[in-house]
Predict the 3D structure of the following.
Amino acid sequence: GAGVSQSPSNKVTEKGKDVELRCDPISGHTALYWYRQSLGQGLEFLIYFQGNSAPDKSGLPSDRFSAERTGGSVSTLTIQRTQQEDSAVYLCASSLVRHVDEQYFGPGTRLTVT
Amino acid sequence: KQEVTQIPAALSVPEGENLVLNCSFTDSAIYNLQWFRQDPGKGLTSLLLIQSSQREQTSGRLNASLDKSSGRSTLYIAASQPGDSATYLCAVPYSGAGSYQLTFGKGTKLSVIP
């Protein structure tokens, strides 16, 4: 079946603009995660959605970052007033039910803020 | 706080050699451990998930072992091939209350020389 998909694959934006990144999880997976991978850094957790429960937003680096998940499926990560330090690869993952289940990752969105 | 370490950061081997990648974690109360592969500019591909109750998990030329008590896991790759060249990451689910992220090591970059 289809894996996790993300769009766009690449995004170049000017400092100060808002961007939206999209994630389509594996069908039937109720858990969805966003991570960020900066050059030379490890993977940084951003946010976790599980079904209809309140999301775990503990990893969001600032209030410029927000995410939503509509209908328990597609998720959108929004970064407002982008800054150069936001440049990174944003990865989305999904798992069947819980965070301890095997996580499957999408190809990522490479964001470059100029 | 769980910390995951992978040593070495980079490894270069000739084709055909067997090799071992190491992963250590500070909190042994883990639920499972997952090994991933990441090709340059790509997302993560799940290789193996080994449950805390298991000692080993095998897939093709890959074998992952887990020793919870010592806080270590190894990924053994048999008869390495140039196509195995990638960065290998290990990750464990965070075991703290109310948080649902994977904690990743920074990875081992493997180069298999033809």
